UniProtKB/TrEMBL annotation:
Residues 272-281 have a biased composition (Basic and acidic residues). The keyword Phosphoprotein does not apply. Residues 258-281 are annotated as: Disordered. This is Phosphatidylethanolamine binding protein 4. It comes from the Eukaryota. The keyword Signal applies. Belongs to the phosphatidylethanolamine-binding protein family. Transmembrane segments: none annotated. Keywords: Signal. Residues 1-19 form the signal peptide. The gene is PEBP4.
Length: 281
């Protein structure tokens, strides 16, 4: 009877010991939490890197190390679009038969494929091999050297997700970004709206911070005087329509909330060194 009791006690102790790590991980404020499936739909081909955190695409900013406070003062992140093009092969907009205005890529020679004729190679421009079949005449095609992009960062949940009266708050807007640059994470171009860090108001819940990259169609992109007066309540759809921008080439988002609304406040406010390294589940 004594041995039986001791074995039962040992088994119970072992079970409790094995259960503790799982409970700790569930409550660990330094574990990355992925976005829900519905929010993750936006995450396509774009990477956004912040100091100490790495790529935040499709993630919730962790509570640990005061990250939710730090991100409100960090400078602009490194944004990488690995699928960016070096050049663009396009027809005049009115002749396009598909939603994509261009077809080309990075590395190699560019080819044009015309029905009933062998593909005709164009001079090597540093763009990857490309073939496009289009019923439009070959002379209507134009090789646009140096494809450029537009980067947009917005908060659709201003002032809160439940009452987004000021959506889309414009946090960052840069045009004329070379494909070769954004592939490497260099955001160099015309900054129409300087970077403004995420700054969700107190008691407003979690905010989504969304990044979009568009292939630039117009040579000159600008904001209207009334758009320059304020960042809030930006009519993003009208801006996109004005410059013939439809679907983004890539996009992503992350979520965070006001740091004092977090369940667990972290010690060492203002510390530049992380006490714990964030872990991915």
């Amino acid at each position: 009877m004594g041995w039986t009791m001791r074995l039962a006690t040992a088994a119970l102790f072992l079970g409790l010991t094995m259960a503790v790590p799982g409970d700790e991980e569930d409550s660990d404020p330094c574990v990355y939490e992925a976005l829900s499936d519905s929010d993750a739909v936006l995450c396509k081909g774009l990477k956004v890197f912040y100091p100490e955190l790495g790529n935040l695409g499709c993630m919730v900013v962790p509570e640990c190390n005061n990250y939710r406070q730090k991100i409100t003062s960090w400078t602009e992140p490194i944004v990488k679009f690995p699928g960016a093009l070096d050049c663009c092969l396009s027809n005049p907009p009115q002749l396009l038969k598909t939603s994509s205005p261009c077809a080309c890529g990075a590395g190699g020679a560019v080819h044009v494929s015309v029905p009933g004729a062998a593909p005709a190679p164009l001079p090597d421009t540093g763009a990857r091999d490309m073939e496009k079949t289009n019923p439009s005449p070959a002379h209507n095609r134009h090789l646009i050297m140096g494809a450029t992009y537009i980067l947009v960062m917005v908060d659709p949940d201003a002032p809160s997700r439940s009452s987004p009266k000021a959506q889309f708050w414009r946090h960052w807007l840069v045009t004329d970004i070379k494909g070769t640059d954004i592939r490497k994470g260099k955001i160099q171009g015309q900054e129409l709206s300087p970077y403004q860090p995420p700054s969700p108001p107190p008691k407003s819940g979690f905010h989504r911070y969304q990044f979009f990259v568009y292939l630039q169609q117009e040579k000159s992109i600008s904001l209207l005087p009334k758009e320059n007066k304020t960042r809030g309540s930006w009519k993003m759809d009208k801006f996109l329509s004005r410059f013939h921008l439809s679907e983004p080439e890539a996009s992503t988002q992350f979520m965070t909330q006001y740091y004092q609304d977090s369940q667990k406040l972290q010690p060492g406010e203002g510390s530049s060194e992380p006490k714990d390294k964030p872990k991915r589940r």
